[in-house]
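Chapter review. Work through the record for Toll-like receptor 3 before attempting the end-of-chapter questions.
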Amino acid sequence: SNNNIANINDKLLEGLEKLEILELQHNNLARLWKRANPSGPVDFLKGLSHLHILNLESNGFDEIPAEVFKGLSELKSIDLGLNNLNIFPLSVFDDQASLKSLNLQKNLITSVEKDVFGPAFRNLSNLDMSFNPFDCTCESIAWFVNWINSTHTNISDLSSHYLCNTPPQYHGFPVMLFDISACKDSAPFELFFIINTSILLIFIFTVLLIHFEGWRISFYWNVSVHRVLGFK
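Structure tokens for Toll-like receptor 3:
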């Protein structure tokens, strides 16, 4: 840690399958996880199947590859605090059912959804996602609010360090107090809207099809009917 490391070869840690603790905090490793790299993100954690503690705090990461923790099923602690992470791929924590501690404080996280964080939160003892700019809308944090209000996981300073950033009417409002009852009530209306929109689109498509291709449809229909009835 604290070495200003900016580059790691994807084979540098090869052969260290028994490594249990890796601390690379306060370096400059952000470039390694960039999708824009000529060969894609550098998977420098590959093969560390017995890793228990991983500290990558304060490295400037603003992207995280979907497969970065794949195979690291023994991880007990992940620290990605003080980075610039915003969007997490759906499968990024799929192998982290054994995780006990997760630190994501002071990133740029706006949304906490079950499909992304559910596997990581399953057996957590400690969570730190403080000082993130949460988007207090049903789509972004309804599941998270329900989880933090029912979990036994230790989450420090919930009322003061987990605040809404957007939308404007909720700015500075505690995330834990966001009213999710409105989210549940809106579900039937959303389904109704989707069904009605689909019917309308099908109707418009049918009208346009008949308008522009009606003669062709009529012709082939008559041909088919005549063939069925035995006419030439």
